[in-house]
Amino acid sequence: MTTPAPTDGRVALLHVDDDDLAACVACGLCLPHCPTYRVTGLEAASPRGRITAMRAVQWDGAALDATFAQYMEECVQCRGCEAACPSSVPFGRLMEGARATLQEQPPVKRSPLRGVAEWFGFRVLLPRHWLLLAFTWLLLVAQRLRIVPKGVALPRLSARSLVRPLRPAPAAGEVDAYLFTGCVMDAWQRDVHRAALEVMEAGGAAVGLAGRGGDCCGALHVHAGRIDEARRLATRVVASMPGDAPVVVDSAGCGAAMKDYGHLIDTPEARAFAARVRDFAEWARERHLPLELTGRRVVVQDPCHLRHVQRAASFTHEVLARAYDVTGTDDDGLCCGAGGVYAVVQPELAGAIRARKVEALQRAAGDTAPLVASANPGCLMHLRGAGVDVRHPAELLAAALKKERPPL
Asked: What is the mean pLDDT of the chain?
């Protein structure tokens, strides 16, 4: 664990590129696209305000203090500002660098409970999938006994799903595509993977799963500023799926992280791997899928890391439109407030951001309760916590597949 820094602040250099920091011209076009600014109205809660704080530390010798840490930690890292920025400021990388510095030099002593929770989650649990599965069984029992704290937004865990491993149909030849199952999603939402596998095989693909080491992509570690740990996990993932077959990812956050492996690891192998990564809908749109029109209306919630980072949100709309009446929201893709573990560490801001998203989803649905599609596990859990009927696009497509019927 990192040794806490003195509580009176200190001067530090951030792990950011000065040219990236200088690219912001403070035009303010990012402000309407920032969920924390929209909720609070505070300049310090905007991308422009956060960059100003970074410049003060990096260039003016300002202290790396508790106030600076608060500005950085209140960012959802949705990167909506990047899509709106005319100067192409890489805000996501600036935020990752700032958080990496705070991880190394925390300006205030963190509570023992938070320290233990972060150590256990990031260092012990996520890198060891067998342990995560065992921990999930404990959570399932706690759910059934109704002793899980109300503030913990867990999905309804399923023993039936946990005992049934994913089993792709045996491939006669080479694998056409890998399905990346990851860590938390495989433990808590494995039925989404099951649906994705069904759709991929219905599209004629011989599907493979990652080998040893391919069970945590490091996305949550990057968000938390734990860059070295993220690199180690990413290197394992690259080695777990050899060859040149596409790597299909049904988690928008994981897909965004894996498409950035070339920057994170900076090796030819990592760049080649990153070029193979496809979002599930991005891959599915290129395949013939035996779908039936359902007549049901679906409101698509674009996960931030699919819309703003991967720039691949349109594929979800396109492939779902083959079977559903698809509509979007009128809020220009604002964040839902999930943000990886953001909803856990910043519950008030996350709840306020979610309330705005739920209103947008209801407006899109009209007079009926919305059936929502979201391609990210965090968004699924966060929105379900507000009572929204939200499904993964893979589940909706699997439900719309033409099923063989017995002859009359």
From this structure: 92
